[in-house]
Amino acid sequence: MRTIVSFSKYVFIIVLTVVSFSCSPEDGEDGKDGVNGIDGVDGIAGVQGATGQDGNANVVSVLFEGQTISNGDNVFDIPQLTQEIFDTGFVFAYVTVTGNNYWETLPLSLGQQIILEIDKIEVGKATLRATFTQSNLRLRFVLVASSESNSVNFKNYNEVMGYYNIKD
Questions:
Q1: What's the confidence (pLDDT) of residue 79?
Q2: Burial bucket for residue 166 (CB in 10 Å: 0-12, 13-18, 19+)
Q3: What's the predicted TM-score (pTM) here?
């Protein structure tokens, strides 16, 4: 009887070994692909918006930040000031101290005396003349190549920025 139990142990170990090595994950079949869901329904198209106002591609705004103006002539290189603007357009300039929430139109006066003004406009540059020295200024030049602005008050910074849709 002892021989049968011993023989049974060996047979069991052999069967277990054969079964262990004969199965591997690669031998199984791939599962079936799942079913795709149904596409959703497209939304309803929105209402067409109103036609916007035509812009003016002939207007350029050039901003100089953190500038120091010195007594006398101050030259600003403005490559956007083209021959076309020089010949047919115009240039306006505004100034403010960095941090202020308002702009002032040039010429800038104190009492009866002009203290900052556009002295000279040339292709590619503008010269401001000052009778003071001040640092930390912001200057904006608005360059317009056309003359379609007869309804704009260029002494009002906000009106100019709104008319030409220029972002501050």
A1: 96
A2: middle
A3: 0.57
